[in-house]
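REVIEWER CHECKLIST
Item 1: Sequence provided? yes
Item 2: Single chain? yes
Item 3: Sequence as submitted:
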Amino acid sequence: MVTANTWPSGGAMLQLRNEVRPVDLYCYLGARFGPPNGPSNFFRNDDSDNLVHWDWTLAHDAGLVVFLGMNFRTEVRFHGEACRGYADRDEFVAQLKSDFAKHGKGMAKVRRSLEPWVEFVNPYQRIRHSVDQLVKELSALALRPSEERIDTILEGIDSDRWQEMWTNTAARYSKGFGLCFGVRAMLPVMAEAFVNLLIYVLMRPAIRRDERLREHAIRQPIDVRVKSLSINCIGFKRDPDYEDDACKRYQTLVNERNDLLHGNVVVEKLKFNEVYFHGKVPVFREYRSLWERSLGVAINAVGLERMVEEQAVVEAFIAYLVSCLEDDIRVQFEMIAGRYDLGLNKATQRLGILFPPWLVDVKMKA
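Item 4: Structure as written out by the authors:
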């Protein structure tokens, strides 16, 4: 038994990342020495939220060798002055790998006991994160068109100062137009990604197993996908009604997005002024200020003041679809939908949340 009084002093440490694949090292240690036996195992939570996931502490003639499997590396600690000579990483890795062949069958047995999972990005959250970031950047610009409009050269300000004000304001608004365009283009896609996630997570097993039925379910127009949710998926307590106001407003948003994104020429939506010509002489129906004919046109064209309303439309559409789910399914699905990273069991195709929503690393004392 090792106690605080008998723990060898001195030693060294080395870090392994992928010089030896961590799964190979785990299988090797398990095959040769049995289950993890180090003291860190007694302090770990029974889940994946730990600084140290596994610990083998092994006695050696020269002291102790400790293997700590962490989030981003394996730390190998040599306790005892005589162990310092073992801390050459290249040589240590070569010795480890040369011993794998002697324990191949045992390593294979340990490997078969492991569940193979794949981590993947939730496409709905990928888009939502991007939208949230763009909105944050747009908000930081603090654009206030009604308060900041510059119509004419102001009294008491010389032309150079006015030009500087106009240039700085135009630069801020130009950046804002790009951010707004990005958000408005992505909002309907974010909602569509949510529908696709619903289908992927809750698809009926019989449809999931049939490639043609599966592809048919996910390739339909968005309105058909929504109307078919309770047909193609489990967990719905009522059929989603695409005539519901939340769905109709979303469809209108989709149509608006198509005009915006594809550059459709819809003059009634794009016009900003009317003018007559007498020969080559322009006769304005009414005068527009410099602001109205430049930045004001762009504000209306990109829909700067409609963006918040469109965000609300998408959120209402998502909330409506969630309200159609059975209560227990809704709770589980919202947990999955809220995570940026998800896991898929390669053998059973089961979805899961593999890790907490934070990354933790620590430099531990040797």
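Item 5: Key structural point noted by reviewer: The chain has a mean pLDDT of 86.
Item 6: Recommendation: ____
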